[in-house]
Amino acid sequence: MTSDTGASYAAAGVDIEAGDRAVELMKEWVKKTQRPEVLGGLGGFAGLFDASALKRYERPLLASATDGVGTKVDIARQLGVYDTIGHDLVAMVMDDIVVCGAEPLFMTDYICVGKVHPERVAAIVKGIAEGCVLAGCALVGGETAEHPGLLGPDDFDVAGAGTGVVEYDRLLGADRIRTGDSVIAMAASGLHSNGYSLVRHVLLERAGMRLEQRVEELGRTLGEELLEPTKIYSLDCMALTRTAEVHAYSHITGGGLAANLARVIPDHLHATVDRATWTPGAIFDLVGKAGQVEQLELEKTLNMGVGMMAVVPQESVDVALTALADRGVDAWVAGEILDRGDHTTGASLTGAHPA
């Protein structure tokens, strides 16, 4: 049977008015991220950034990255907490950009929902805007897409893309690393935004834990622990680069500590990281025990308490650690750079974590 009423976008599940209201609600948060180089306001077809600001560079290199936050969004959905996931998104994008020594300039976001709830979308953007402030970049635009039929009314996902700039002769990376350099670890705020498919499977499905459940080892509820925002290191890394000689950074994300560190190690060298130099947070032990997950599996999936690493010459270690401490970053010497020798990979973990 067919209806006498003509079809419409609203009848198909897309609410344009709700989308417009979401834009109005998010404007105040986006405004807080503006840099002097940003032209125009929210609502245009494209975000505008005054590239004449790059004239002060002799040979500017633009660095770009794009990412999402994975299945961590499902934790936010279940708890009905939407104003922190944006921090995760900015961290995943901008901390990749700062690795090469680039200054974060601006980013755009993409929010896909099953149904537009204006206040919910605005809360997500609020978190993204707050993250941009912490990273020192502008949020110049984005897109909110409503996909009824593909996503449930409460389902959503987020993604973002960012751009930064670095002077050619200040580009950081493998070419600068030398034998004898030290590897400095910077503490993570928690799980960050990787490995949540494993974490959700182990804790929620296999162990039957509830997000509202208080876990004594964590000192708070499981949900609060799993939603802890990813630490944004961008401004800390930029400040460190200005203060001390830095050869490379490594953002510890999917693949774990050794695999990500290996990405910035030249072929003829090897990085060793001593587990005895730090104790991973309680959440890592909880996941390991609850799922009987072997240590190597944990280490290639989770960050194990380290979110960023810096490779610096030995003579810069004290200055670097002091600079990070002054900014409130928990950091320590975790390893060193050696000749490749018989090692078959670019980085490896040695020793054992303190009991």
UniProtKB/TrEMBL annotation:
Domain PurM-like C-terminal, residue spans: 179-343
InterPro entries assigned to the protein according to its UniProt record, in alphabetical order: PurM-like_C_dom, PurM-like_C_sf, PurM-like_N, PurM-like_N_sf, PurM_cligase
Main location: cytoplasm
Molecular functions (GO terms): phosphoribosylformylglycinamidine cyclo-ligase activity
EC number: 6.3.3.1
CDD domains with a match to the protein in the record: PurM
Biological or metabolic pathway of the protein: Purine metabolism; IMP biosynthesis via de novo pathway; 5-amino-1-(5-phospho-D-ribosyl)imidazole from N(2)-formyl-N(1)-(5-phospho-D-ribosyl)glycinamide: step 2/2
Domain PurM-like N-terminal, residue spans: 58-166
Subcellular location: Cytoplasm
Family that this chain belongs to: Belongs to the AIR synthase family.
Alphabetical list of NCBIfam families matching this protein: purM
Protein name as it appears in the record: Phosphoribosylformylglycinamidine cyclo-ligase
